Amino acid sequence: MLLEIRDLKKSYAEPGGGKVPILDIAEFHVDEGEQVVLRGESGGGKTTLLHLISGLVQPDSGSIRLEGVELTGFSEAKRDRIRASKMGYVFQTFNLLPAFTALENVRLAMTFARRAVDGSRAKDLLARVGLSDRMHYLPSQLSVGQQQRVSVARALVNRPKLLLADEPTANVDPANQSRIIELIQSSCLEERVALLLVTHSDEVSKRFARVEQLGQLNRAAQRPLTQDAV
Ligand SMILES: Nc1ncnc2c1ncn2[C@@H]1O[C@H](COP(=O)(O)OP(=O)(O)OP(=O)(O)O)[C@@H](O)[C@H]1O
Ligand SMILES: [Mg+2]
Fold first, then answer.
1. 212: CA distance to ligand 2 center in Å?
2. CB 40 less than 6 A from any atom of ligand 1
3. pTM above 0.90, yes or no
4. DSSP secondary structure of 18-51
5. Is residue 166 helix, strand or coil?
6. Residue 156 vs residues 67, 117, 149, 186, 200: alpha-carbon distances, Å
7. 194-226: b or e for each residue (b if 16 or more CB lie within 10 Å)?
8. 230 vs 225: CA distance, rounded Å
9. Is 174 in the pocket of ligand 1 (CB under 6 A)?
10. pLDDT, tens digit, for every residue of 80-119?
């Protein structure tokens, strides 16, 4: 098993004081190379779960194991290192560094993971996502779909074990949506990377054999609506 989550709890402080439980997940796992879609209502905690898995956020309690290694007790620096080397992250808003070209953005991910920069790996991935002729463009000179393809290349460059993708096609048009999802899925298959992808789209979900509803995994979701209901 690649990713194993047990009794994971996360709450956030409410602006007025007090705590709101966001996640309470008894068990969730992803196998090596498996492709999983995560769905659920807005505000249900999907992004929070990806943040917890990637170590951007710490849980209140519970266990997150990657390749059998418990991640939750590690320092922020160690979590950053593990994220950089073992995980790829594709954000809804791409998060490319604006002052750097497509190729530099992909190469920088190698630097962050303390890898020797392998220029041909970065170029190969940009070619795979169809951007051979745009490698030296800045993000601002790329279309939205092209920027997302750069971020897919960046997420894969360190040969991660797990790719986390948070609504990666929410900002692209339908034609580009299926192209990008196809690209993510085929790249993960070829590179033997497991994929956990958040989407609100039925079209996207149809392409996956395993679709998980966060509301069903999450015991904290049973709470009555408070502010949201007003
Ligand atoms: N830093 C934070 N401080 C306080 N509350 C937070 C924080 N981050 C998230 N939350 C709350 O946690 C809940 C879950 O948010 P999250 O972003 O995980 O939802 P989501 O399922 O990704 O929703 P969407 O589909 O809209 O992206 C929300 O109610 C949100 O207000
Ligand atoms: Mg979200």
1. 15
2. yes
3. yes
4. SEEEEEEEEEEEE-TT-EEEEE--TTSSHHHHHH
5. strand
6. 18, 14, 11, 12, 23
7. bbbbbbebeebeebbeeebebeebbebbeeeee
8. 9
9. no
10. 999 999 999 999 888 999 999 999 999 999 988 877 778 8
**Radius of gyration, alpha carbons of the chain:** 18
Structural domain spans, the chain: 3-229
Ligand 1 pocket mutation, candidates 11, 22, 167, criterion most atoms within 8 A of CB: 22
C-alpha triplet 160, 198, 208: angle, nearest 5°: 85
Could you tell me if the CB of 44 is within 6 A of ligand 1?
yes
CATH homologous superfamily of domain 3-229? P-loop containing nucleotide triphosphate hydrolases (3.40.50.300)
Q: Tokens for 59, please give them.
A: 């849980």
DSSP strand E in 118-167: where?
Answer: 162-166
Name the residue of 8, 10, 24, 48 to mutate for ligand 1: max ligand atoms within 8 A of Cβ. 48
Q: What is the pLDDT of residues 25-67, one digit of tens each?
A: 999 999 999 999 999 999 999 999 999 999 999 999 999 999 9
Q: Using CA atoms, how far apart are residues 19 and 15, in angstroms rounded to an integer?
A: 9
- Give me 98's structure tokens: 């604006």
